[in-house]
Amino acid sequence: MNNIPEKISAQLEKNPIDWQSILEETIGHFGCSTGTLHFLKSGTSILELKAQKGIPDFLLPKVSAIPIGKGMAGIAAERMKPVEMCNLQTDESGVARPAAKETKVEGSLAAPLIHEGKLYGTIGIAKPVSYDFTEEEIASLMGIGEAICQKIS
């Protein structure tokens, strides 16, 4: 697993894998406060919540099952490319769902979990401040996503 932070790599070697710990290590690695990990439900176009940190309880029903194409995670899955937002609070593109603003996060990045051209889910991270993720950070999150895929495929 090239360029995967050591703590995340070590978590991925555990059996069973603690997906909550993987997500929390990833959030910490990027200096973020909030995140989600969704796995694609087999035979459907629904992303099911596997782990989360920092999502308000009242929003959990809205993020527990996300259709591909809806919201940042769904669009990242549909496009099979990362979706980034400098400030989710002021975004008017329609990519972020209205309820997403209730998370109070600003700088957000959602990446598809892809391995050998196949979609396995999405991982999303966010900061409580406006932030533009660098190309290196985006590539790093994609790499973490691919490492996750290798454990769930």
TrEMBL record:
Parts of the chain that traverse the membrane: none
Xref: Pfam families: GAF_2 (PF13185)
SUPFAM superfamilies assigned: GAF domain-like
Gene3D superfamilies noted in UniProt: 3.30.450.40
Domain of life: Bacteria
Domain GAF: 21-147
Protein name, as recorded: GAF domain-containing protein
Species annotation: Maribacter algicola
